[in-house]
Amino acid sequence: MGNEKHNDRKRTGRVSAWRPCLALLAVLPALVSCRSGRQETRSGGTATAVHSHAAGTQTKTTVRTHSADARPQTAVRPSAVASPVVYIYKTRKDYSRLVPVIMDESRTRIVSYPAPTDLKKGGRLTYPTPLDNGYWLDNRGITPQAAFLSYTYEEYSRLTKVPSVKELETRIVDRQPFTFIMACGRRTDYKDIVKELNEYIRQNGLK
Fold it and tell me: N or C: which end of the chain has fewer CB within 10 A?
């Protein structure tokens, strides 16, 4: 890993979770397609909906499927293997300006995090894009294992070196941030991604 040219960091020799992949989706209990809700098992452009709700004093996360028959079909294009997985999500609070990191399955340890130079693309910070009904479109590369730091994108991007994992872990503000997160195919599946996702949200009654 270089000082300025590397993309994402990882520790303990694990494969980084920073780039979402189909292998991650395969271990989740339920898979549905953004384009059709008629089949229960799919490959390729899959979508997984994860809902979190309070259970007493604890937070319980469940996976539920959504019918997506209303998904617009006009922009269907072949998916590229290297194309990023699309995630839409809601969080318990507004974390849209905070830097995400990827945790292990127990959410006790950071396994992947960005360098300060990773937060910009084309000279712009990769903030999530707001969607209808309070949903967000990820532009950074999160997964359901993401947590958020107290660093804002602006603060982190100005750092001259990457903080240590120990320091980053002290900066975590929420290890269970999501009330909803859904993987919805790949970027190459879309022609106008924001318009199509908003249409999907409306037609499928996502509140």
Answer: C
